[in-house]
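Budget justification note: compute hours in this period were largely spent on complex prediction jobs such as the one shown. Inputs:
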Amino acid sequence: MSKAIVLLSGGLDSTTTLAIAQRDGHEVHAMTFRYGQRHEIEVDAARRVATAAGVRDHVVVDIDLRTFGGSALTSDVPVPKDRHVDANRHGIPVTYVPARNTIFLSYGLAWAEVHGATEIYAGVNAVDYAGYPDCRPEYIAAYQRMADLATRAGIEGRGPQIKTPLITMSKADIIKLGASLGVDYALTTSCYEPTVHGVACGHCDSCHLRLKGFAEAGLKDPIRYREPKQ
Amino acid sequence: MSKAIVLLSGGLDSTTTLAIAQRDGHEVHAMTFRYGQRHEIEVDAARRVATAAGVRDHVVVDIDLRTFGGSALTSDVPVPKDRHVDANRHGIPVTYVPARNTIFLSYGLAWAEVHGATEIYAGVNAVDYAGYPDCRPEYIAAYQRMADLATRAGIEGRGPQIKTPLITMSKADIIKLGASLGVDYALTTSCYEPTVHGVACGHCDSCHLRLKGFAEAGLKDPIRYREPKQ
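Corresponding output:
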């Protein structure tokens, strides 16, 4: 049984990605990052998801991204509400975290090498996160070429394969696929500003995307909202 | 004055690299990683070097690479003594840490984005560390192509430039260059197993490389050794 690292945030996309990695026949080593994000409640969600999925192991890695500032998710910039995109002149959302995916994938690469994992799954999506430079297919392709040289396996020119099965999928299609694979979305969290009990706000960009996805998929979102928009 | 991130371990190579970045006219933001290496005394050396060089700022980032194991520098594998190379079947030294340079450069990339730095200097060397996949020029080139897509600047296809001025230089040439730039090598540390007071062993691979470099450069190494080999 080949091994795969899955980057697991506890959100909808990464939870679906984990189910895909298992469907593909891999033994899953899940990896979650605690990086000073306001929605640390995600880490708890990731633990629930990992346990429910019966992964081989699950590591939570501490990363102090607050050191770097520059994002509404890790500093005091307000998280935008009721606006689908709050972008700067380049169309990059304020919730973008500098080099986040590069750092996360790099930890995944290290862990893949230690475990001898042949793939790294990441729930990167270029549709919902169109403004994020590190969610684009060309970025992932360039990361792959770097990863092919970066590790012991790279001496022979082949690194673990970076799998981003959701990268061009709509949220509705992701939810439909996950539902068909038996994903329990009640375990997941998406809200940027949940209550301390994990109840979603229903207003932030991430809640909007999620609710719209469930609506378009013709399914009911099983999580609780402070002010349901369904 | 353009800004540069310098990855600073407190060793001979990165200290020389810092001096080169300043010679090149950059305002330096130094970045040091505390990653569970046995020779944590390096972090203190990095602080001394950063202060002496008058850098703009200096951040020490905690990375728990022990989570990943797999290296003599971060786990209980013995550090080889009095052998220039202790390699596995691929010629990779046991002191290789999985994906270390990829993780370090990725933090550098994040910090470069926050500060608007146009370059990232790293003291990577492909001569002394010939067995390390992530010290090869082709790896650095692939990292550059990834970095060109990874950040806000990457939307326009240009990221910070990764500078590895020492990559093909011998240790002797590095020391001669550093000396000509006024580097005080007494502030640096190289030993894998120094005493608690920072006195070098004189026997490990790193001490051998350093002592050989000073000898070939015709200079005296100003640091203290338990058993001088000079």
